[in-house]
Amino acid sequence: MAYEWRLFWVGDGGDPVGGRPVPGWEDLKERERVLGLRERQPILVAPDGRVDPRLTDRFRIRF
Q: Is 70 exceeded by the pLDDT of residue 1?
């Protein structure tokens, strides 16, 4: 488990498994769209692996 917050960007993932989607994550772009996340929007992931919705909303407004 990580001990620090980690920063990611929507749409920044690439293909970590040789050009194939990670099993169970094939619909990631659709999930991001449904949540209203924009391409290149920053997302902070807490050390426990959760995304804080308040911070996500703040980034949605600012970026």
A: no
- The answer to whether the pTM exceeds 0.90 is no
Cα 4 off chain centre by: 16
Structure tokens that stand for 45 in this block? 């992931």
Look at residue 1 and tell me if it is in a domain. no
Note whether 7 and 44 are within 8 A (CB): yes
For 51, the domain range is 6-62
State both tokens at 34: 């449904």
pLDDT of residue 32: 86
Instruction: State the amino acid at position 3 in one-letter form.
Output: Y
User: How far is residue 33's CA from residue 26's CA, in Å, rounded to a whole number?
Assistant: 13
Question: How far apart are the C-alpha atoms of 7 and 58, rounded to whole Å?
Answer: 14
Q: Indicate whether 17 pLDDT > 70.
A: no
